[in-house]
Amino acid sequence: MTITITAFEWSPDGGKGLACDTRVRWALEEVGQPYEVRLVSFRAMKEPAHLALHPFGQIPTYEEGDLALFETGSIVLHIAERHAGLLPDDANGRARAITWMFAALSTVEPPILEHATARLLEGDKSWSKERLPLVQDRVRDRLKQLSSRLGDADWLDGPFSAGDLMMVSVLLRLRSSGILDEFPKLAAYVARGEARPAYKRAFDAQLVLYSGKPPTG
Ligand code: GTB
What we know:
The chain folds into two domains: 3-85 and 199-210, 3-Layer(aba) Sandwich (Glutaredoxin); 91-196, Glutathione S-transferase Yfyf (Class Pi), Chain A, domain 2. Helix 5 (91-121) runs antiparallel to helix 6 (128-150). By secondary structure, it is α+β, with helices and mostly antiparallel strands. It has helices spanning 21-30, 42-45, 48-51, 72-82, 91-121, 128-150, 162-172, 184-195, 197-210, and strands at residues 3-8, 36-40, 61-64, 67-70. It starts with a strand and ends in a 7-residue tail after the last helix. The chain has a four-stranded mixed beta sheet with strand order 2-1-3-4.
């Protein structure tokens, strides 16, 4: 059955791979599933046809036969559960890998998103200079804990899993801030994720769409 995902018609990051479809592309590449991409404009994302797929008018979505999903956590878990390569075979190992997916999305990503908002959307506010250091420290607190747990291991719990895919994807959002480089073990962890052939294929597939392309709407 054909898998179709949605992605930005034009990504504000110009192809740095930060938009969330990269996580889904990466998961599909890891398990060797071909997929098609439907590009949607910012306007089309808020129109009824797309809202029927994604109630919040965002990308990515995932369609496979009569199944339609939104939310990258759900999509990546769906892919990982149906195809070998992203979850361990033993039940406890699977549960732990899924726990890391939730940790990435529920515990690590929120302060990173808050930080991105403070830097990029609220940087011109009168209170921004006071607030930004607080938000940065919240990110640092999480990274310190995560780095301590990772230690010198390559991945969070045994072999690479969907938990690592999600955690690396979340941490990548920090790169331009420089904070990640304060945590060399995490910077190396992210670099290991980016070095995976499946990540490179996913990254290249989105880059070709956006490099040099102007916004259309
Ligand atoms: N919780 C959802 C999930 O995990 O699927 C979050 C989905 C989401 O944030 N989608 C964003 C979106 O559609 C794109 S990825 N935004 C449009 C809207 O809400 O109207 C977030 C994103 C967008 C752009 C950059 N960038 O250019 O750097 C980085 C990340």
